[in-house]
Amino acid sequence: MHGSVYLARKVGLAAGTVFVAITLNFILFRAAPGDAVSNLSRVPHASPQLKEALRHEFGLDQSKWAQYLLYLKELAHGNLGISFADQQPVSHDLATALGNTVPMVLLGTVIAILFGVFTGTVAAWRRGGITDQVNTNVAIAFYSFPTQWLGLMLLILFAGVLPTSGMTDEFAIDPSWWAHLQDVLKHMILPSATMALTLYGEYTLIARSAMLETLSEDYILTARAKGLSNARIVRRHAFRNALLPTTTMVALSLGYVVGGAILIETVFSWPGIGRAVYQAVLQRDYPMLQGAFLVLTLSVVVFNLIADLLYFKLDPRVTE
Amino acid sequence: MSMLDVVDLEVWFDLPGGGELHAVQGVDLAVERGDRLGLVGESGCGKTTVMMAMMGLLPSNATVSGQVLLDGVDILAHGERSVRSHRWVDLAMVFQGAMNAFNPVQRIGRQIREPMELHRTASGAAARRRTNELLEMVGMPVSAADRYPHELSGGMRQRAALAMALACEPRVLFADEPTTALDVMVQAQILQQLGQLVDELGLALVLVTHDLPVVAAVCDRATVMYAGRIAEQATMDALFHDPRHPYTRLLFASTPDLYGEEPVVSIPGSPPRLDRPLTGCPFAARCPHAFDPCREQQPALATLAAGHLAACHLNTRAGVTA
């Protein structure tokens, strides 16, 4: 019916957002004091000729407008530039960091979502009872613990039992892919667990309140009057409706999966994108920052779009 | 013994701030096959609570005592466990404000089929056929089964709710203010349909409403409730022409008639609070005929004639009528 119009509008809006974000990224870093050359040529006795040559090489001697067009053109060809810090293509550095971050953060987030939605639903179902109180209070506690503190506590508790730093065992020599996978998974346990614990409380609270609101709806009474059991009411009628507000949250936090978790990656020395951004800031590695911001923007926009599409699928009323 | 007997039904609600509200105080009802019983009274008189209690649908802060006998078997005896198998199969309900009685994210047809599949009265293609049959029965196009609730008008949704209530061929149909939110034309159509279906299907109808003309149009008997108790129970004819409780008389007088010949009366005051014990007749404070015994002693529901009951001291005082 109007579904295609809705979709087209949402996709158009997403594309517009990305374009605006790209432009802002460009302006943001040009507006920051100092430029690539003054950073690179911060060596004693850098000659004006050298600076000029570098400026020319980076295209910084052209007008801002020409630079912007060039930036857009290069972006359109997938070229994110060269990192100042290690002279590697930014896309290569980003891909490595992303490849390290995404599995770890995704694992934690997915566990948080599943566990949070489950405990929230149970709490709502047993409203006011001891199950509800314990669930809700524990969720609030974990929601309010600072991430790095929780990470450190896990580190103290499990140091010696589980690896606490890095992604692989540095001393393993030429491991088989299977041994490597096991090694990485073992290293992933603590950072992912920290991620899951800090995130799940929010899901519990949101799922609980969404479920409570849904359970007080008239159609839930209709379902009871029809003779449905409580479990069936939750499964058939309440769950999907209560999931609607949770969907947005899920999509949003999946968007941030790509952004990584700077604190967790720092505590556990995980070589991911969060740590890469942190180091890029310290080293004033602008192309790296620009690329990382672009990827972060893209992932947030894309997952928001996915949330909208999911809504479209879950709730027949959205086209109205 | 009737098909459905309610014996000495009492309902208390626990109030959030402590204390209890005695919402239903010893209500007895008898419903036979083919009956059209109205349950009338102003807001808060307990009429909806009675109906919800009969289906065991009251929230967890409610305490219910008394019996709801279906063919002589107390369906509330084991709480949720015993009442659930009777829901929709024996007792079905059209809810107040059917706007929200449907799940917004499921198609109408699926929601009508749900109880059939649950209670195994029909499934698969048979359930679909039955759904179409029901929709036609309430005067809706078969295509409405594929619609979502928000795609239907209020009147259509109310008809669909009626179709859904009839899905498992219940023996008793409760209708709680089934037409309150609708405009007068649609209201009349739906009431007519309701009466017709009750006749065709031979089920018993319990119509809960504050709207006397609606009761008069559909029901042949009515129970007037006041402050959680039965004030009077009789045929519509007797209630109109020979009311034996001042509340009944004032209730009828407060309904404007079509020709505007009689002035509309309002009943001064408001019903008593039910969260504290009452002495005397609950209506005494608002009753124009109240006399000493009314303030001291609760009047018992007495049989005045065959099928005519009223709880009023005036009926037992020689030479005085309400």
Strand and helix layout:
The complex is a heterodimer of chains A (about 325) and B (about 325).
Chain A: H1 3-31, H2 36-40, H3 48-58, H4 64-76, H5 90-125, H6 130-144, H7 147-158, H8 177-215, H9 218-225, H10 230-257, H11 262-267, H12 273-282, H13 286-314
Chain B: E1 4-14, E2 20-31, E3 36-40, H1 47-54, E4 62-70, E5 73-74, H2 80-83, E6 91-94, H3 108-118, H4 124-137, H5 154-165, E7 172-176, H6 184-201, E8 204-209, H7 212-218, E9 221-226, E10 229-235, H8 236-241, H9 246-253, H10 292-296, E11 302-305, E12 308-310
Parallel strand pairs in B: 3-8, 3-9, 6-7, 7-8
Antiparallel strand pairs in B: 1-2, 1-4, 4-5, 9-10, 10-12, 11-12
Helix pairs in contact in B: 3-4, 3-5, 4-5, 5-6
Tag the structure with descriptive keywords.
heterodimer; A: 320 residues; mainly alpha; MetI-like fold; 75% helix; B: 322 residues; 8-stranded mixed beta sheet; 4-stranded antiparallel beta sheet; 12 strands; 29% helix
Tell me what the structure shows:
The complex is a heterodimer of chains A (320) and B (322). Chain A has a single domain (2-319), classed as MetI-like fold (Orthogonal Bundle). Chain A is 75% helix and 0% strand. Chain A has 13 helices and no strands. Chain A has helices at 3-31, 36-40, 48-58, 64-76, 90-125, 130-144, 147-158, 177-215, 218-225, 230-257, 262-267, 273-282, 286-314. Chain A is globular. The model of chain A has no long low-confidence stretch (mean pLDDT 84). Helix content of chain B is 29%, strand content 23%. Chain B has helices at residues 47-54, 80-83, 108-118, 124-137, 154-165, 184-201, 212-218, 236-241, 246-253, 292-296, and strands at residues 4-14, 20-31, 36-40, 62-70, 73-74, 91-94, 172-176, 204-209, 221-226, 229-235, 302-305, 308-310. In chain B, the strands form two sheets. In chain B, strands 6-7-8-3-9-10-12-11 form an eight-stranded mixed β-sheet, with helices on both faces. In chain B, helix 3 packs across helix 4 (124-137), helix 3 packs parallel to helix 5 and helix 4 (124-137) crosses helix 5. The chains are: A mainly alpha (320), B alpha/beta (322).
